[in-house]
Inverse folding.
């Protein structure tokens, strides 16, 4: 899964991500690279939404910018999950990464159709078991 690969790569290179903000402020080449990455990620989110709509897994947007806002939330979470994981007392390990993958994927849940929610529940049944 691309999300998992990306998150594991971020974890492996966490030293880079902790300094990214400063690098973006001082290095034009890094800025330009991440502007292009942002465009690709935004396009990737919209492609995902389109494919999910075509397969009746995702609801149509309720207003013009709804999917843009959703894509922004997904990108922002993808950019910051590593930082927030270190705010808590436990050191993040590669064994904990499933939690952050599932958190990321759950951003989509409110936007899913009935069929999409069934597929999500089949994918992650432990989220829906009685407590």
């Amino acid at each position: 899964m691309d999300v998992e690969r990306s998150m594991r790569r971020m974890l492996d290179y966490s030293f880079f991500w902790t300094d990214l903000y400063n690098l973006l402020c001082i290095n034009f080449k890094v800025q330009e690279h991440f502007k292009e990455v942002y465009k690709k990620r935004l396009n990737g989110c919209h492609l995902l939404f389109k494919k999910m709509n075509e397969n009746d897994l995702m609801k149509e947007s309720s207003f013009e910018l709804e999917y843009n806002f959703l894509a922004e939330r997904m990108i922002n979470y993808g950019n910051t999950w590593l930082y927030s994981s270190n705010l808590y007392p436990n050191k993040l390990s590669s064994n904990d990464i499933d939690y952050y993958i599932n958190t990321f994927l759950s951003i989509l849940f409110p936007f899913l159709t009935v069929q999409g929610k069934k597929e999500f529940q089949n994918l992650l049944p432990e989220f829906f078991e009685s407590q």
